[in-house]
Specification:
Blueprint: E1 2-6, H1 10-22, E2 26-30, H2 33-40, E3 47-50, E4 53-54, E5 57-58, H3 59-67, E6 80-85, H4 90-98, E7 103-106, H5 111-122, E8 132-134, E9 137-140, E10 145-148, E11 151-152, H6 157-168, H7 176-183, H8 194-206, E12 212-215, E13 219-222
Parallel strand pairs: 1-2, 1-3, 3-6, 6-7
Antiparallel strand pairs: 4-5, 8-9, 9-10, 10-11, 12-13
Helix pairs in contact: 6-8
Length: about 230
C-alpha cells in the first residue's frame, strides 16, 4: 500500500517512513501543506498520515479539504486519513475526527500502535478476515507471514507487499502503472523493469501451479480459481 506522511520534523518523518517501509509499504514524505497537495495530485495514495502544525498551514485544514473533495487526487476514492499530532486535548481530538480524520494518534507514540492503526485503516473496507487467502495461498500482514499449501514462503519485503496487493484485489487485472502506484514509492523509476523482475522472483517462490497470470497488453492478475 502507498502512504503519504505529512510531517515537518525530518527525524520523525524519516523514522516513521523507514519503519513503515520495513513492513512493506511504499512511503512518500511531504514537509508541508503545499508539498502534500502536489503529491496528492500526482500519485494515488491509500493512506495519508497528517501532522496538525505545519510550516505553511495545518493538517486539520488539509484533512478537511481532502475529505470534502476540494483537492485533486488520483484514484477512485480519497486516501484514509490518520492525524498524528502532539495536540492531545479532547477538543483537539474531537476537531480532528469532526474534520473527517479516520483516526487520531497522539505524539509521543509507540511505533507498534501506529503500525496497528495503519493496518486497521487499510483494511477498513475489507469485510474479510485480516488474514488474506486466495486458493491455497495464505498471508497474514500483521505477522508478516505467508504460506502456500501449508509451506512457508520466504519473501522479501517488496515481494510480500506485492503478493498482499494481489490478494487484496483477486480477479482484477492490475497494470504495471497500478502496481507502481501502490507497491512502490516515488523513488521507483517507472522506466525500469523493477515490476517485472519482482513478479518473476515472486512467481519462482510461489512455485507450481503458476499463480500470477500475465494478461498481454494489460497487466497481471491472481484469480480466485487457482
Amino acid at each position: 500500500m502507498r502512504l503519504l506522511i505529512v510531517e515537518d520534523e525530518p527525524d520523525l518523518a524519516d523514522a516513521v517512513s523507514r519503519g513503515l517501509r520495513r513492513r512493506g509499504h511504499a512511503v512518500d514524505v511531504a514537509g508541508g501543506v503545499i508539498d502534500a497537495e502536489l503529491r496528492l495530485g500526482s500519485a494515488e495514495y491509500d493512506l495519508a498520515i497528517l501532522d496538525w502544525n505545519l510550516p505553511d498551514g495545518n493538517g486539520l485544514d488539509l484533512c478537511r479539504a481532502l475529505v470534502r473533495g476540494e483537492l485533486v487526487t488520483l484514484g477512485p476514492s480519497r486516501p484514509r486519513v490518520l492525524m498524528l499530532t502532539a495536540r492531545d486535548d479532547v477538543d483537539d481530538r474531537v476537531a480532528g475526527l469532526d474534520a473527517g480524520a479516520d483516526d487520531y494518534l497522539i505524539k509521543p507514540f509507540a511505533f507498534a500502535e501506529l503500525e496497528a492503526r495503519v493496518r486497521a485503516l487499510l483494511r477498513r473496507d475489507d469485510e474479510s478476515s485480516p488474514v488474506l487467502a486466495v486458493g491455497d495461498i495464505w498471508l497474514d500482514p500483521a505477522r508478516f507471514v505467508a504460506e502456500r499449501g501449508g509451506s512457508p514462503l520466504s519473501l522479501t519485503v517488496k515481494e510480500f507487499a506485492l503478493l498482499e496487493f494481489f490478494l487484496r484485489h483477486p480477479d482484477e487485472v492490475l497494470s504495471q502503472e497500478t502496481l507502481l502506484e501502490h507497491v512502490w514509492d516515488e523513488m521507483a523509476d517507472p522506466f525500469t523493469n523493477t515490476v517485472r523482475v519482482t513478479i518473476s522472483n515472486l512467481r519462482k517462490k510461489l512455485g507450481d501451479p503458476p499463480v500470477v497470470e500475465t494478461v498481454p497488453g494489460r497487466g497481471y492478475v491472481v484469480r480466485h480459481a487457482l
